[in-house]
Design brief:
The protein is an alpha/beta fold and about 220 residues long. Helices cover about 35% and strands about 25% of the residues. The radius of gyration is 23 Å and the shape is elongated.
Length: about 220
């Protein structure tokens, strides 16, 4: 028996979620106020509705009482998220998941009835960090939504080459802050410095550039 899931809000997270759920055979109901976005997924889901998710009567009319799980995917709209969570619980939905953009928002949504809170950006960063630390990366810290600071061993193909030859900024958008080797740390980047396998590179980069570094 297919699991029935309602996705309320079709921002980037909601769209990705809808596509994955549909691809894996779930019975999906979607709702969003943007007609074009709703139409985009209409042929891939069981029910697609253009709806004002800030209106409790409209939300009640979606037929949520019959679904297994409601996912409130509007992390940037607290008012709409609260309304969707409250109405879903009033209708007897057993499992309501709500996306939150911050811990404070998550606390509020839990208080009004959400059974589970997800923080996509935080979870994505944690997954990225775990993946990085399992390879050449030693430490990893997020600096907001886009930037990160990390330390890493040189990739095998970097060993024995100079910073000038590697052109790390051009190739990977990688900005080196310091290099530690033999217990000494230098923040003065000599372009003719030859990297060894024992060097530890401290750098800052955009998170989206990390995949290029890993491959």
């Amino acid at each position: 028996m297919k699991k029935s899931i309602a996705v309320l809000g079709l921002g980037r997270f909601g769209q990705f979620l809808t596509a994955e759920l549909s691809r894996n055979g779930a019975d999906v109901l979607i709702a969003d106020e943007d007609e074009e976005t709703v139409r985009k997924f209409a042929n891939h889901v069981s029910c697609a509705v253009k709806a004002d998710l800030n209106d409790p009567e409209v939300i009640r009319g979606l037929g949520l009482a019959g679904v297994d799980t409601v996912i409130v995917a509007m992390g940037s709209s607290l008012d709409s998220s609260i309304m969707c969570v409250m109405v879903a619980k009033e209708l007897g939905v057993r499992h309501v998941i709500a996306k939150a953009a911050s811990l404070r928002m998550g606390e509020i949504l839990r208080r009004v009835g959400a059974d589970e809170i997800i923080y996509p950006e935080k979870e994505s960063a944690e997954m990225t960090a775990r993946r990085l630390l399992s390879s050449d990366f030693l430490e990893y810290f997020d600096l907001g939504d886009e930037l990160c600071v990390f330390s890493m061993r040189p990739k095998k193909e970097w060993v024995g080459k100079t910073l000038r030859e590697l052109k790390l900024r051009d190739r990977y958008q990688l900005n080196i802050m310091a290099i530690r080797e033999n217990g000494r740390t230098s923040a003065t980047m000599n372009p003719d410095l030859v990297l060894t396998e024992n060097a530890e590179i401290f750098a800052v980069a955009e998170r989206q550039a990390l995949d290029h570094i890993l491959h």
